[in-house]
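This part of the workshop introduces the protein records we will be handling. Each record describes a single protein and holds just a pair of labelled lines. Instead of coordinates, the fold is spelled out as a row of discrete tokens. To make this concrete, we reproduce a full record directly below:
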Amino acid sequence: MNMEFIISNASVILVVVAVICTLISVITEFTKEIGILNKIPTSLQVLALSIIICTIAFFAYISYAGIAFVWYYLVAVVFAAFLVAIICCKGWDYLIDIWKRFYRTKG
């Protein structure tokens, strides 16, 4: 694999995650004071929205790309949805700090 291919895909993934985080944040901001959503913690609402939106985006993508569905893809999407929820609730810096804590470079 060529390095440019890997770099271009990583940037696309970061853009998609940023767009999904923005969408979740906007939806949460507008709906957190409505009805029953007023009674649940905002973090729970963000997690539920993250799982729903990531799953819908995943099925839309595999349908568009013509990729066959395999059950463990859905498990990966739910895991990714948790990461998206962490980014939405705590920010990118929080996730980067966790990454740095567990994956220190030797030097």
